Structure formats: structure tokens, C-alpha cells
Amino acid sequence: MNKEHGIPVDRVSLVEMGPRDGLQNERSILSLDKRLALIARLAESGLQRIEVGAFVSPKRVPQMADSAALFAALPRRTPIRYGALVPNLQGLQAAMAARVDEIGLFTACSDGFTRANIGIGVEESLVRFAPLVAQARSLGIRVRGYLSTVIACPYDGPTRPKRVAALAERLLDLGCHEISLGDTIGVGTPGTVAPMLDAVLHEVPAGRLAVHFHDTYGQGLANLLPALERGIRTIDCSVAGLGGCPYAPGASGNVASEEVVYLLHGLGMSTGVNLDLLAATGQWVSEQLGRANGSRVGQALHARAQARRQGKPDEITQGECHGS
Ligand code: HMG
Ligand code: MG
């Protein structure tokens, strides 16, 4: 395994978005028990960072309304870290009371989206976040900074890479431990993602960045390649490709976790995730929500498991092709 400063560079950390970004945009609201079961299954599959809720207005995002009750019922188990979104002081106080391991503050590169999402412009959001980061950090809570619309905004149009870089640097300077770069509406391709990443990497080291690609145009997986090539090793993804943002019209879910794991294992990288368990969870949650499984890897593995149960001849998967 390649090593850089003692850290295995082939290890990729996945941040599972299904219970938050995934469920926030689903029409059916999962019961608390089912959300807990989903999170337990995701943890069981080996995922160690799971974003499970949001302390936002329940009128705006009813799917996340019972986040405090969810945190109260979660079994805490090292090294698993549970995160939640926080938009303001009221949200931070609720998150601290709920003993959240990590909070995610969220802003964007464009005023149009930020106003639709949290009711204020980008500059105002940074002013609002400064004391929140300081307060969270003083209590030892890690703060992730989400930067949305890094490729384009559904209201304001294309985003300039230099703007993304400048805002990512400002979030880092505020004290965020990590910046998650969001292609919120999933319109990027490697042709637009690579120059955006190059600009950001001028200001922020790869080790402090995560990528958060929505898969609206089916480019999520392709967009991971320029990120991996540039040394980024933290990837946001959502089981069964669930989700989207209610304030980003037309956006679909994050790149599916199953696809990401299949790709990374195929590249010889490690994730610590058991793909079969993850895929079974993706199929399970899709059935609970009454929707099609949005992961093609999940669909293939489900079909394979069904064929096995019926005693039909097995197909070959990538791991078997490579003999690993
Ligand atoms: P507002 O209406 O401007 O706030 O909302 P306000 O301060 O005027 O308060 C209005 C009401 O909201 C009051 O209640 C407050 O108590 C309540 P009322 O008196 O009317 O009964 N309120 C809250 N309730 C619970 N928790 C809070 C809170 N704050 C105020 N923290 C606010 C401002 C930010 C709250 C609102 O706009 C909001 O909740 N927006 C939700 C945004 C959201 O969750 N979007 C989806 C997540 S972002 C995303 O998906 C993108 C991401 O995935 C990255 C990417 O893909 O690019 C992260
Ligand atoms: Mg998102």
C-alpha cells in the first residue's frame, strides 16, 4: 500500500448522506424506528461517518423534524461519528443538546441558492457562521463546512472556480476542519469539475476537502476520478442514491454509496465497507420508501442474490474478475 506521512493514501473515507441528504427530499417520511434501523445497518456495513439529521426548521424540511429524538435513541459506538446540519444558533443549541459528534454548516457560492435555502445571502451566512464555529469548537465538536453550487446554481447560473476557491478558504479560516464541495444540482462533468478542484487546491490542501456530487446527469462517478487523481480522499455518497435538496429544483440524489464502493475497490482502494451488506441496506430502504433502487450496483447485487436463492448459475462481479 502507498503511504504518505504514515497515512495509507489508498484508504478513502466515505461520509454517508442517506439518512440526511437522502431522506430530506423523499416524499414518504420514514418513521423514527426505520431511520434508526437504516443507520444501524449502514454502521454495520462498515461506514464510520454518517450524517443522520438536520436541526433546521421543521416547517421547511419536515423529514428531519425529529432529529433530536433520533440522536437521543442512537447507539453510540466508537469510531462511528454521527453528524447533523445546523443553519443558525438555534440549530447549534439543539445539536449540542443532542450530543452531535460533528455539525455541518452550509452555505453556497451563489446568493440565489443560499437565499432560497437559508433565507440569507452568502456574505451574511459567513458572518453568522463565525461565532457558531467558535462555539462548537470550544466544546470539541468538529465543524464541517458545506459549500454548495460549486459548478452552477439553479437560480444564478454557472459558478467561477475562483469564487469556489475563495469561499472554501474563508470557511477553512473560520475554523471548519473540512470543506465539502457540493455540485448541488449534479450538472458538472470532469471537464468542469477538474478546473474547479485545481482552483480550490491552490488555497486548501486536499486533506481538508471532501467532494459531494449529486448524480442528476449521471456524472457523479466520473466526477470522482479527477478528485481522486488530485489526492482528495473523502467522498460524500448516499445509499441507493437517495435524495436531493428541496431548494435545488430538479436535483437528484448523491452519487450512490454502492457505486462509489464498487469503483474504489475496483481501483484497489480500501473503504472498510462490506459492499454486500451496504447493497442489502440500499435495497431494504428503497422498499421501505416504496421507490426503485437508485443504485445500479445495488440492483445488480440484489438480482444476483435473488438468483442465488433460486439456485440459478452465478454471474461474475468485478472482484472475481480481478481475483481479489
Ligand atoms: P427563517 O424563516 O429565516 O428563520 O428560517 P427565522 O429565524 O425567521 O425563524 C422562523 C421560524 O423557524 C421560527 O419558528 C423559528 O423558531 C424557526 P416560528 O416562530 O415560525 O414557529 N427556526 C428553527 N426551527 C428549528 N430549527 C432551527 C430554526 N431556526 C429557526 N434551527 C432557516 C431560517 C435556516 C431556519 C430555514 O430557512 C431553514 O430551516 N432552512 C432549511 C434549509 C435546509 O435544510 N435545506 C436542505 C439542506 S442543505 C443541502 O441539502 C445542500 C447540501 O447537501 C450540500 C449540497 O448538496 O450542495 C448540504
Ligand atoms: Mg447535497
Would you kindly provide a written description of the structure presented here, covering whatever features stand out?
With 324 residues, the chain is of the alpha/beta class. Helices cover 44% and strands 16% of the residues. The protein is built from 13 helices and 12 strands. It has helices at 18-24, 32-44, 67-73, 89-97, 111-118, 122-138, 161-174, 190-203, 220-229, 257-266, 275-289, 296-309, 318-321; strands spanning 3-4, 7-8, 13-16, 49-54, 81-86, 102-108, 142-148, 152-153, 157-158, 178-183, 209-213, 234-237. An 8-stranded parallel β-barrel has the order 3-4-5-6-7-10-11-12, surrounded by 8 helices. It has a two-stranded antiparallel sheet with strand order 1-2. Strands 8-9 form a two-stranded antiparallel sheet. Strand 11, helix 9 (220-229) and strand 12 form a beta-alpha-beta unit. Helix 7 (161-174) crosses helix 8, helix 8 runs parallel beside helix 9 and helix 10 (257-266) packs antiparallel against helix 11 (275-289). The two termini are 15 Å apart. Bound molecules: 3-hydroxy-3-methylglutaryl-coenzyme A and magnesium ion.
Q: What is the residue-averaged pLDDT? A: 93
Give me the side-by-side strand order of the main sheet.
Answer: 3-4-5-6-7-10-11-12
Low-confidence stretches: none
Major sheet attributes: 8 strands, parallel, barrel
Which range best describes the helical content: under 10%, 10-25%, 25-40%, 40-55%, 55-70% or over 70%? 40-55%
Q: Outline, from the CA principal axes?
A: globular
In terms of structural class, how would the helical and strand content be classed? alpha/beta
Distance between the termini: 15 Å
